[in-house]
Amino acid sequence: MDIKAYLAAKKDIVNETLETIVPPATSFPPAIHEAMRYSLFAGGKRIRPILAIAAAEALGGKTEGLLPVAAALELIHTYSLIHDDLPAMDNDDLRRGRPTCHKVYGEAIAILAGDGLLTLAFEVLSDPQRLKAVDAATMVSIIREIGTASGVFGMVGGQVVDIQSEGREIDFPTLEYIHTHKTGALIRASIRTGALVAGAGKEQRDAMTRYAEQVGLAFQIADDILDITATEEELGKDIGSDLKKGKKTFPSFLGLDESRRRANEVAGHAIEALKGFDGQADPLRELARYIVKRVH
């Protein structure tokens, strides 16, 4: 299959859904809505919502009922990027090829824009009108899944350990903790949420979870490699930022060649987890390959 065409088509659908959810920039107070939209529509790949959609499709689920959930995942991802870029965090000047939110709107509005996106996500996830195709029990499970992935046992916890590890010698399990929580947790939740909406049974959910954990790790290893090998134009942000901040990465532990080998190996494990699924799971298989071969 043509994974690039699949990604482009699904990205368009996700963006159309986001437009129906996020207030227009002219809504009062305009500063916050401008900032939210500035970061949200800056050209992201929409990998997390697309993984949710692909997981549902692999189980025969319909995309329409999942779209609000997929959009909420992107709202949360974008919130995390805005906050990660802040001077008190990673202190980055570029994101997706243009100045970061706080560089354009100031730190206070950027913080609030991230807050606005995060809370809007849970407003969407708990809206029975938007999630008509999802029963109440499943809705609660989705909210818990995504809430846990976003909090102290997921992204927030990973970010804390990442910050505390800057400029320090850490062991390999600590690096893996950072990766599986800061990045992997929301990817895992995206895939598990798609499976939940599609009504997956226990064996199917377990297989999807194994896939999700491996593909999330592959994604972060690839990011570590790109931080060294990609150009600023390709990456859309400052290159070599991890090294400048004294962060440990897979290449700093293993070297580039071994990191590439490990990324491909992990992606292979993700694909192997789907051996019980038919051709409807091909987008997930191709996404695992795409994640380690991408150039940005």
Q: Given the structure, what is the number of helices?
A: 15
CATH architecture: Orthogonal Bundle
**Main sheet: which strands, in order across?**
1-2
Inertia-based shape: globular
Query: What is the N-to-C succession of helices and strands?
Result: HHHHEEHHHHHHHHHHH
Query: Helicity level, as a percent range?
Result: over 70%
Roughly how many Å is the radius of gyration?
Answer: 18 Å
How many structural domains are formed by the residues?
1
Structural class: mainly alpha
Explain this structure to me?
It is globular and about 45 Å long. It contains 15 helices and two strands. The longest helix is centred in the C-terminal third of the chain and has 28 residues, at 202-229. Strand 1 (94-95) and strand 2 form a beta hairpin. The protein has a two-stranded antiparallel sheet. It has 296 residues and is mainly alpha-helical. The protein has one domain: Farnesyl Diphosphate Synthase (Orthogonal Bundle), CATH 1.10.600.
